[in-house]
UniProtKB/TrEMBL annotation:
Family membership: Belongs to the class I-like SAM-binding methyltransferase superfamily. EFM4 family.
Region called Disordered, residue ranges: 1-26
PANTHER family assigned to the protein according to its UniProt record, in alphabetical order: EEF1A LYSINE METHYLTRANSFERASE 2, PROTEIN-LYSINE N-METHYLTRANSFERASE METTL10
Places the protein is found: Cytoplasm; Nucleus
Protein EC: 2.1.1.-
Protein name: EEF1A lysine methyltransferase 2
Species for this entry: Patagioenas fasciata monilis
Top-rank taxon, per record: Eukaryota
Keywords: Cytoplasm, Methyltransferase, Nucleus, S-adenosyl-L-methionine, Transferase
One GO process term, biological-process aspect: methylation
Enzyme class label: transferase
Domain Methyltransferase: 78-207
GO cellular component: a single term: nucleus
């Protein structure tokens, strides 16, 4: 099986020119693709109990959990996994003691798979819901932590107006994450600089988490970028000060 990065990642070659879209459209950016993929994974889980693909590998989950632990994020903080897929990250978070966990995915078969895995692991307190993050429901709000592992990448490959969908993603993130809340993103399509630019409105970069490096042609690079952003706190308006 190909590594997750190879399938989601941008093709090798020179970067985009000014004003150009960085990636061509791909089926990986469509809901039909994910529905079909998770239907297959659901069948495999039912047949042999295999949870399916863990995007960016187990180390990507360890990296996120270590960061939360290092920051002493309270175990009851509200945490949203955006595009949770099989929900295994949430199960690992629950095993580490986190108690207020929600996962959403726009693919009903992904949510069905994550529900089955949750049941097998006895983690009934994890909340799971079919939701399109680009049109979030009103109840999806006030989260202290949001995590994205590969979902912004998938959205960036949408064949229909990917640039508009990336903008909508940032707006959705602003509506679900509290001011001062943390956003942890793992990507194989975007560099640190590109992500900082995508999320510049409303977010500031706090930290880059170390990921494996590769060396090619004498140059060292990372195939995966893992960043922590913090949602900017809203400044009190003049009217608030008059109160
Ligand atoms: C590369 S997979 C990553 C899955 C999971 N985060 C993981 O690390 O295993 C991308 C996920 O994003 C979901 N997704 C893509 N666009 C979405 C959207 N607009 N709203 C919710 N989920 C979306 C897909 O269904 C898929 O589960």
């Amino acid at each position: 099986m190909a590594a997750a990065g190879e399938r989601l990642g941008r093709p090798a070659g020179p970067g985009p020119g000014c004003g150009e879209e960085p990636f061509g459209p791909s089926v990986l950016g469509t809901r039909e693709h994910w529905d079909a993929a998770y239907e297959r994974e659901l069948q495999t889980f039912q047949d042999i109990g295999d949870v399916g693909e863990i995007w960016f590998g187990e180390e990507s989950m360890v990296r996120i959990i270590r960061w939360l632990e290092k920051q002493k994020i309270p175990l009851d903080s509200s945490l949203l996994d955006i595009g949770t897929g099989n929900g295994v990250l949430l199960v690992e978070l629950a095993k580490s003691g986190y108690t207020n966990l929600t996962g959403i995915d726009y693919s009903p078969s992904a949510i069905e798979l994550s529900e089955k895995i949750r049941e097998k692991e006895g983690m009934s307190n994890i909340k799971l819901k079919v939701e399109d993050f680009l049109a979030p429901s009103a109840e999806l709000s006030g989260f202290e932590i949001c995590i994205d592992k590969g979902t912004f990448d998938a959205i960036s490959l949408n064949p229909d107006n990917a640039a508009g969908k990336r903008k909508q993603y940032v707006q959705s993130l602003c509506s679900v994450l509290k001011p001062g809340g943390f956003f942890l993103i793992t990507s194989c399509n975007w560099t640190k600089e590109e992500l900082s630019n995508e999320f510049r409105e409303g977010f500031e970069i706090l930290e880059e988490l170390p990921t494996p490096k590769f060396c090619f042609g004498g140059r060292i690079g990372n195939s995966v970028t893992a960043l922590v952003f913090q949602r900017k706190k809203v400044r009190p308006s003049v009217l608030d000060k008059l109160d």
